[in-house]
Amino acid sequence: MRLLYSALSPFARKVRVLALEKGLAERIGLEPAAPYQDEVVRALNPLNKIPTLVTDGGEAVYDSAVICDYLDGLAEPRLIPASQPERHRALKLEAAADGLGDAALLVVRERMRPGGEHRQDVFDRQLKAIEAALDLFEGAGLSVERFAIGEIAVAAQLGYLDARKVVDWRTGRPVLAAWFEAVSKRGSMIASDPSAG
Ligand SMILES: N[C@@H](CCC(=O)N[C@@H](CS)C(=O)NCC(=O)O)C(=O)O
Fold first, then answer.
1. How far apart, in whole angstroms, are the C-alpha atoms of residue 176 and residue 154?
2. Ligand 1 environment, Cβ below 6 A
């Protein structure tokens, strides 16, 4: 398999962490891609986004949630719970984390605009979503021991907030900060840490 990715992409990191946790990483070749600079990924994914996985059979799979679902079916341990209510909880957590990631990306892209072109309404709207999602995570009872899809998705996005200095998310969220510190020690998180190069 091949994974088109970038080291900084939190969605690609979610996929990589899941693959590492499942022992699948050595079966996946990592291919850097730059969807904001070129159109290379569009031949595989009409959205021209990363992560995009190409299976051994040559099928292109996207987006990150669908890639995780595909990889989860290839090996144990299952990191997307099969039974309810765990499944519902995990997928909802993943959706909130991915949504935070979409908002964080918009903030970062908006900041890249030259000075006078910033759109304050975009900042305000997206920062509200980021802060509310972080508050949700603070009270979500995230597990250090059970590092399943919901937890993986949250951890990947918190890493992105740090890497891009999007917001100071630790202030006022001691539970989330302690949880992230603990899960950041996992081999999968260390191996996929964007600051590690
Ligand atoms: N919902 C998608 C989001 C992926 C995404 O936004 N990827 C960014 C990089 S982190 C991208 O490729 N953006 C290119 C673009 O929007 O044109 C997923 O979960 O895979």
1. 10
2. 9, 11, 35-36, 48-51, 63-65, 98, 105
Q: Which helix (H) or strand (E) holds 187?
A: helix 187-191
Q: For residue 118, how far is its CA from the centre of ligand 1 (angstroms)?
A: 21
Answer whether 0.85 is exceeded by the pTM.
Answer: yes
Condensed to tens digits (0 to 9), the pLDDT of residues 46-73 reads 999 999 999 999 999 999 999 999 999 9
Output the CA 166–ligand 1 centroid distance in Å. Answer: 17
Domains and CATH numbers, the chain: 2-72 (3.40.30.10), 86-192 (1.20.1050.10)
Strand ranges for the chain from DSSP E = 2-5, 29-32, 52-54, 60-61
Tokens 């992560």 sit at which residue?
51
Torsion (CA) 187, 67, 75, 153 in degrees, nearest 10? 40
